[in-house]
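The data are quoted verbatim for reference:
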Amino acid sequence: MQAKFLFEGGKEFSTGIFKNKEQVQRKVDILNRDHLFQLLEKWLLQRSHAMGNSRNREYPLYLLNLVNGYRLVSFIEFIKVIRLYREDFQKCIPGASSPTFKHYENEIKPWLNFCLGLKNGG
């Protein structure tokens, strides 16, 4: 069985030959986990910088350390960690007037909602 994995927008990521659907699903889960990890890593670094000396600056650094520690677990376990630390992730959300709010709304929030099991933002 051959499978082609695509990024959003249709850009090809990779192809592979697999013995069964379970192997394909494992590959999809690994790609999703890695994508989510990279997305959160960049966002948390940005949020740490943007929060400067505010009292909440500790949250993005704490979460960055946390996701680094779980980056090789299964996709389902990674989602569970995000769900468990939901309140800490929410403390990192930029204000609506922030220049990075649109990035949060378009890239980060959909993934966080997915991890929390939310549909359409709530």
